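Contributing new records

If you add data, match the layout below exactly. Sequence lines come first and carry their own label; structure lines follow with theirs. Keep one chain per record. Anything else will be rejected by the validation script.
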Amino acid sequence: MVEHKVSFNEDTVVAVPAGALLTEAATKAGIFIAQPCGGQGRCGRCAVQVKEGRVRRRSTLRLSPEDVAAGYALACQSVVEADAWVSVPRQEMLERRLTTDRVVTDVAVPAGYTFECDQSIRRFCLTLPPPTMDDQRDDRSRLLTAIRQQATDCQQGGLDNLSISLPLLRQLGPLLRASNWQVTALLAARQSRSARVIQVFPGHAPADIPLLGVAIDIGTTTVSVWLVDLTSGRVLAQAAEYNRQIRFGEDVISRVMYASKNNGQAELRDLVLQSINILIERVLHKAAGDPHLAAGNGQATRPALESSSIVKATVVGNSIMMHLLLGIPADSIRLSPFVTAVNHLPPFSGAEIGLDIHPEAEVICLPGVASYVGADITAGVLSSGLDDMAQVTLFMDIGTNGELVLGCRDWLVTCACSAGPAFEGAGMRDGMRATRGAIEEVWIDGHTYEPTLRVIGDSKPRGLCGSGLISLLAEMFLTGVIDKGGHLNQHLPTRRIRIGESGPEYVVAWADETWHGRDIAITHVDMDNLIRAKAAIYAGISILADSVGVPLESVEQVLIGGAFGKYINVEKGVQIGLLPDKPWDNFKFLGNTAVLGAYHALLSQVAQQRIHDIADRMTYIELSADNSFYEAFTSALFLPHTDLSRFPSIAEALTGMA
């Protein structure tokens, strides 16, 4: 096999077979190259410069002839055909939004929670009869019999089916004898009177020894972890960070496509595990000094919080994120008829998943509904209380994906909208995530057409995040900068409207005002992408309402979940036709409902079962198979909508401006 040497940035050299992609060579060299489109050659963000040597470019999309002449190539579309020296530009750094982490005191322990009644983790202090010539039961039977007897005596429910793993069996005999047959057993109880032994401690462990759990939300963009004291139910620490899979796709379909290539599935699984495990380490560090975790010896010292103290985890995420976490192929989700490999997953151990927690910890992956409505939505419905409400309610989780649930305590219908990552700032010329330097709100003067900006972190602007794009689009529409079809009015007396490289555009910030020294603008293509994204979501809402014969006017409240949802300006969302036209007090922003639902399931077996019931009750509507969706989508491709009677407040505002 012919090999070629590829040198990256002059200091890293690897040998790869002829025909290898530059991205494969970079991975081998430990060089990070972002591939937001999943290596499909669509985004242009993996451009590198070939200083010496030769590569074969399969595609030059988003590269100008001048770029190609200067040696630039798309790493995901360029094949190594000779020794080469490649310069990799500095990759975009990910910074968390300043308000990513919620304040712990915001999370109230569910009323009436008690460890003994609600928790599936059980603790038994046991004194076993030692073996004799007359009692020659094996060590395992002796332990399990004592557990069953105490469970019955304490009225904790009979345990007919008890299991213990091979690693624990290897330790059991020596431990029982060294502790003089006095031990504490930790169990994870399951449905159908079954349980699994997690740990056996020597002696009777104090009741306040730390028993911790983690609630994990694997978002397409952000991963969140809450550390919880299972004994009290208190949230001890929270942390969130960008999902490291982003480098191989900002949307789920790009990641599925990347997973189907070579070792892509294993890479994506490793990346999401890295994201979770780093956050677990972070929350343990945050909680290490918590005074409520005092040792049981009456002293002021506090126990060291270790990963082995985490004996339970609940995990939520959309269906594709759950498949990628578990290494389950997800190709069937993106291909007709769009079916998952599994919606209801069995419990796993921490070691099976690869989490940095107790290897025998109980890991519960909560259930999803269908290909594009996953456990993040079933958990969100639980934490929002929608499934127990008398009034007809719309639940929206708007982020990288758009999931919708309409219903009440009697019925639930759901769908997912292919809004794409536009609301995350992806795919826009000057779009960015909601980090420092992102423009998050815009006001435009109706006479001068000059914008006023609010920027995250009070720094110079670097680009437009999702909330800023929604605000900008609404302001441009209401001030006449664009018409209802999203076309710029090039006859207005302002130099901010101009013809750029990609056609008509509106300049939001001039180069001398920005962090990077370049103009920040929104193009006609950007606006078209935004309008299509909002149209998909509004069409989904319309289809759900039509499917059950409920007029949108009769929807009594709108609940908005998701990290991005809490930054949407309701007024602006209504003005562009993203949200239904309702009084502001009909909207409630709930924040990350997915991780909150995972928290409730972590504490309560009843809540966990309720999420399973929610998943079973939901009727899923596949919009791609619904003939009326295209008509509803086309009607929503205007600002705010083709039928202005659906938005009476906007019609009134426009009349007043005429």
